[in-house]
Amino acid sequence: MRFLVPLLITTLPVLYALSVAAYARIYNTEPADTGDQTSHRVGPRVLRVAVLLHLLYLIARGWTEGHLPLASVYDFLSATALALAAVYLYVEMRQRIRTTGIFVLPLVLLIQLIASAYGSTVPLTKPPINPFWFELHTLAAVLGYGAFFVSAIYGILFLFLYREIKGNRISFFFTRMPPLESLARMNVSAASAGLVLLALAILMGIGWGKAAGLHPFSDPKTWLTIAAWCLLGFAVVAYHRLGWRGPRAVYASLAGLTTLLLSRVVTDLFVRSFHTFR
Questions:
Q1: pTM of the prediction?
Q2: Are the CB atoms for 143 and 130 separated by under 8 Å?
Q3: Residue 187: closest CA among 231, 245, 230, 227
Q4: 219 Cβ contact partners less than 8 Å away, ≥ 6 residues apart
């Protein structure tokens, strides 16, 4: 399995680049144009192959190293790229809307390019704390981050489209986007999945920390993550229970993601924390 690792880490950015090109073609195709459907078939197929090979890469790394490759920053980035692509594919299959792929996949490509370029230079080491709980906690966190990123992208698209409709403008962007309610459902659906995954990550992280003799509640990352979870949870509840169908729920979900990202930046750069992996 070891020989697959350098081959796959080089191939993944190429496949994601091809996916971006195909989805750019989909976005530029006129909605009424039924003659050019090649990109509509090729784009999702290439992306599925990329996701499967990305999963194979993580399995190959895990097989050769004896644990899932999730400890370093670049491993985390690669797993985040996979989570983004997988969550996007899930939303696309449920909603059958492909014109939004061009707003998600370039981010996947950029993240994986960084991981492929610099991740292979990081020495292969085992996680410093109990691998089993570490892997479960980190895997749930990565999937949750991916879901929240996709939710944020759909939220931003919602706000742009809302602004165009409010200003009575019919632009190229307007003609390519699904209805506002569809974007709102995508935003909330991805955020709901992220809430469940992040809750699992928090609970397993607390259990993992206690089992390792650490003090999770003395770590600022724990409290920042809980705060982000509460903000995102409020956004989902407001959509379903308080009737927030406009920008307010989107702003709340974006505030939650911002808090989540700040918690990661603060932890890695400014705070002494057992969550820091360099």
A1: 0.79
A2: no
A3: 245
A4: 209, 273, 274, 275
